[in-house]
Design the sequence.
């Protein structure tokens, strides 16, 4: 009874969730009394394998196929390795990539899949917990199957830190090029790449509460006054009001500033996934029941159109007329 976890990398770097998968996978492997094996596909596989060699990992399989994520390469490779290792549990990240390939693999292998998992108890049967309705409800599923798969939410398990002595094995995956369906020609960062919100110490983050694009200068003035960087929730990016590289959250960037000021942001679970690591969280929201107040250190329950101009004046700036 073993666990197989699929590591994730992007643009030459392993993502944090790869090391969280090791922690989750080791706990599960201990419950099952078996091995934790990892596979890393594409990119600098040898360098990645060295980094992934953390305590508790038994074998790291490297698959030297392409540089960036390719759906067909991942599905074919994981299916082959799954057939070879016959693991009880298959762990994958609940990321954009993970959610791309996990359903395809589990459908093909005909095994149950639970996505966006925040806790795992027992090994077989396993209790899998996930949140629903924007984090208002937690649901636990009992999976009593010979084999199963889960995708884990980032930042729910600790990062595996201490180095290990895993065996590293290069795997010669048998990729059927005709069945790939897509070719990855390169990677292009979405516009506005001048600002890296993950580097900012103070973020002024705006959400749907701003109502209209014409009102953005108000929060831009606050960011200028506080010498902060402007970020946002996803609807602002979806509306095309700010570029994608300003988006905080599950499908945006994970940020860990000293101060995060969430203005007119409700605190949906997908947003919180990207900012809960901030040192101090300040919320401005007129709804006292907004979920953002569950994690805010300080809050102002009021209309942002009244509060933000006052803050700008208080810190020596000038509020624009909007
Ligand atoms: P809303 O939820 O509409 O909240 C607006 C808030 O503004 C409300 O709480 C309201 O009380 C407050 N408000 C309104 N007017 C005022 C006012 N005048 N003064 C003060 N407060 C006011 N979201 C992300 O942010 N990042 C992601 O990466 C992300 N990824 C996602 C991935 C997937 C697969 C899915 C399904 C969703 C994702 N989402 C993401 C969307 C997420 O579920 C929410 O829809 C989104 O975060 C809501 O954004 P919001 O808080 O700005 O808007």
Sequence:
């Amino acid at each position: 009874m073993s666990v197989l976890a699929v590591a994730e990398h992007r643009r030459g770097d392993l993502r944090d969730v790869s090391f969280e998968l090791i922690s989750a996978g080791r706990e599960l492997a201990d419950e099952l009394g078996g091995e934790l094996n990892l596979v890393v596909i594409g990119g600098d596989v040898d360098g990645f394998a060295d980094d992934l060699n953390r305590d508790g990992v038994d074998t790291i399989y490297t698959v030297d196929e392409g540089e960036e994520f390719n759906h067909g390469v991942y599905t074919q490779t994981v299916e082959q390795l799954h057939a070879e290792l016959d693991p009880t549990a298959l762990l994958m990240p609940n990321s954009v990539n993970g959610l791309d390939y996990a359903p395809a693999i589990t459908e093909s292998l005909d095994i149950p899949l639970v996505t966006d998992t925040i806790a795992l108890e027992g090994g077989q049967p396993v209790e899998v917990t996930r949140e629903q309705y924007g984090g208002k409800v937690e649901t636990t599923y009992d999976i009593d199957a010979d084999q199963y798969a889960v995708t884990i939410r980032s930042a729910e398990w600790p990062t595996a830190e201490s180095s290990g002595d895993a065996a590293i094995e290069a795997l010669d995956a048998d990729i059927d090029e005709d069945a790939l369906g897509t070719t990855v020609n390169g990677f292009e960062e979405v516009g506005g790449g001048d600002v890296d919100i993950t580097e900012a110490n103070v973020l002024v983050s705006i959400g749907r509460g701003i109502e209209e694009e014409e009102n953005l200068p108000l929060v831009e003035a606050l960011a200028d006054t506080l010498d902060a960087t402007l970020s946002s929730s996803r609807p602002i990016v979806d509306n095309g009001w700010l570029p994608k590289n300003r988006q905080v959250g599950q499908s945006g960037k994970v940020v860990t500033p000293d101060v995060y000021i969430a203005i007119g942001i409700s605190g949906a679970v997908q947003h919180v996934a990207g900012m809960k690591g901030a040192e101090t969280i300040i919320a401005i929201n007129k709804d006292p029941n907004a979920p953002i107040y569950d994690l805010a250190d300080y809050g102002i329950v009021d209309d942002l159109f009244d509060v933000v101009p006052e803050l700008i004046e208080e810190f020596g700036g000038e509020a624009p007329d909007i």
The pocket of flavin-adenine dinucleotide is lined by residues 207-209, 233-235, 247-252, 264-266, 268, 270-271, 274, 284-287, 290, 303-305 (CB under 6 Å). DSSP finds nine helices and 16 strands in the chain. The first strand starts at residue 3 and ends at 6. The radius of gyration is 22 Å.
